[in-house]
Amino acid sequence: MKIFFLLKEGIAAFNRARLASVISVVTITLSLTLLGIFGALVENLAVEFHKFYQHAQLEVFLNPAITPGKLKDLQDYLKAIPAVDSVRFVSAEEALRQFEKDFGQDLAATLEENPLPPSFRVSLKSSANNLDAVDALIAKIRARNEVDDVVFARKIFKMVNRYFWVGVISILLIGLVIFVISTLLVFNTIRLTIHARRSIIEIMKLVGATRMFIKGPYLIEGLIQGAAGGLLASLLLRGLENLVRILISPHIVVAPTIFVFLFSLGIVLGFLGSYISINKYLHY
Questions:
Q1: Where in the sequence is the domain holding 42, given as residue range(s)?
Q2: Mean pLDDT in order along the chain per 10 residues (284 residues)
Q3: Which of 40, 98, 188, 245 sits a CA distance of 20 to 30 A from 207?
Q4: Which of these, 9, 29, 74, 54, lies nearest to 229 by C-alpha position?
Q5: Whether residue 165 is found in the same domain as residue 253
């Protein structure tokens, strides 16, 4: 019965001070939406980074005099490497056709022979994103007698790797600053709401009301405000996601865990904001 009474009083307190409650809910909503945006940025940046690495390839150029047996041995060796996703043989003739298609030049007619050697196109797994490990792998493959050279766009991947971490760290730092500012805003907004009712709290203390009797409705009110703010932030973020997918890229995705996190964080912020604020007026 006591729990239902506190719940009823909390809802009533929310309705009685609608303007203050709306301000609290709006503050929580905007703060959590900003956090959700930065969380989605980190998530999508990581996804695009891994997609980029899925296209990482080594071009393993072979000795033109390689025998079919040695070719099969080398192919099996490459496939057995844990970091390798797939291996495709490219004959000298196929390499020439691809060159003529890409550059529009009849290379064989100009040189009167095909200068392009056969090769293996080795695709790496997305988990193979450590450039030092890739360099070690290249050195290992290059040491094989059947291999003339191994080509890898190392500078491009090094640049992408560097800017990925710069972007992630920058977004996380900005997100942390916004989280701190948002938390302070939420706490101060709820504190101002409770401060406006300090006279009621003092009267209840004078007539002998227990701490829980006084605190309960405000804690329930804080939970309601936090839950409402978290829910609205999730809905707003979903709307922004759909808008970005229409206007910019259909591949933008916000994980369901982010929406659950925003809703849960809203409840926590609302409860803690009320708990800390009401304790200021309960020193007995």
A1: 2-51+160-279
A2: 58 64 81 85 76 72 83 88 84 71 58 70 74 81 85 76 74 76 71 69 70 74 85 92 85 86 88 78 59
A3: 188
A4: 29
A5: yes
